[in-house]
TrEMBL record:
Pfam families according to UniProt: RRM_10, RRM_5
InterPro entries linked to this entry: HNRNPL_RRM, Nucleotide-bd_a/b_plait_sf, RBD_domain_sf, RRM_dom
Stretches for region Disordered: 1-99
Gene of this entry: Hnrnpl
Identification of the protein by name: Heterogeneous nuclear ribonucleoprotein L
Annotated keywords: Ribonucleoprotein, RNA-binding
Compositionally skewed regions (Low complexity) per UniProt: 1-18
């Protein structure tokens, strides 16, 4: 009797595990396995022996060892919205670090935050544009300093490359790499000046934008700009409702708003222009994921913001 084919074989006869075989771990959802801790008590990704993208826990040597940061179509990495995605990445050396490469984990150091204006959710609102957020922890002994465990080392690299030395709320934020591989749970966090907790776990948070390949592919990695793109807002949205979000957050309202012609009646989107990048950053950390009342339901829309590649808002949008 002929044995059934192994679950790890492919149509081409390769014994390589399938790239997208039921990744688990992000709050119970079928998602990309994270490196850097928190998944089933392991440091390396999916459940031990559970298939997925990595067949065994990956050391914290960082994803350089797998060729994901190399040249060619693989640049960008799995679930990160890169040009190649999983298909272009070299998986031959994914399980072992190569000599001479830096030992980089997935924890980001954040310095120079305005201690009265910033909290965990506002850090999340900014960093979620560059990768998944796992945990955020403010340091009690260092005012304006926080640690952020991201989904993988590539997310940390992107955040540093795009956000280091940006200025908002009157402070220059500086980013760096932590030697810690993951952030441990904090049972009794202290209160920040605004009354929110100094530690927050975002595992399974639906506002993470790189949860699966489809979601990740929709993200365009952009450096900060003075124009924000907004989406997932109610149909028929008016400018006053948008401005109110920022006024309630005690930041400056946009100087110009452009609503895109709606392709469907299910939601709306458009552009917000601010006077400079600092104002746009402040608006993003305050307004990203703000609830917008839904006239047709008791459940609000959760507005999403990201940096736009546009240099200015045109007077007329193409129909």
């Amino acid at each position: 009797m002929k044995e059934p084919p192994s679950s790890t074989s492919t149509s081409s006869g390769s014994s390589r595990p399938p790239l997208l075989q039921e990744p688990r771990g992000f709050g119970g959802m079928n998602v990309s396995p994270f490196r850097g801790g928190g998944m089933n008590g392991q440091m390396g990704g999916g459940p031990r022996g559970g298939g997925g993208l990595f067949n065994s826990p990956m050391p914290d040597s960082d994803i350089h060892s797998g060729g994901l940061m190399g040249s060619g179509q693989g640049q960008g990495g799995p679930f990160m919205g890169g040009a190649g995605g999983p298909g272009g990445a070299s998986l031959s050396g994914m399980g072992q670090p190569q000599p001479g490469l830096p030992q980089q984990g997935a924890v980001l150091m954040v310095y120079g935050l305005n201690k009265d204006k910033m909290n965990a959710d506002r850090i999340f609102n900014l960093l979620c544009l560059y990768g998944n957020i796992v945990r955020i922890k403010f340091l009690k002994t260092k005012e304006g300093c926080a640690m952020v465990q991201m989904g993988d080392a590539l997310a940390v690299e992107r955040a540093v490359a795009n956000l280091n030395n940006t200025t908002f709320f009157g402070c220059k934020m500086q980013l760096g790499y932590s030697k810690q591989a993951f952030l441990a749970d904090v049972q009794q966090p202290y209160d920040l000046p605004d009354g929110t907790a100094s530690f927050k776990d975002y595992m399974g948070n639906k506002n993470n934008r790189f949860i699966n390949p489809e979601m990740a592919s929709k993200n365009r990695i952009q450096p900060p700009s003075k124009i924000l793109h907004f989406f997932n807002t109610p149909p028929g949205l008016d400018e006053d409702t948008l401005k109110q979000v920022f006024l309630e957050g005690e930041v400056l309202e946009p100087k110009s708003i452009k609503l895109f012609p709606s392709k469907t009646e299910r939601s709306s989107s458009g552009l917000l222009e601010f006077n400079n990048i600092s104002e746009a950053l402040e608006a993003l950390v305050v307004g990203n994921h703000a609830p917008i009342p839904n006239p047709n339901s008791k459940f609000p829309f959760i507005m999403k913001l990201c940096f736009s590649s546009s240099r200015h808002i045109p007077n007329k949008m193409a129909e």
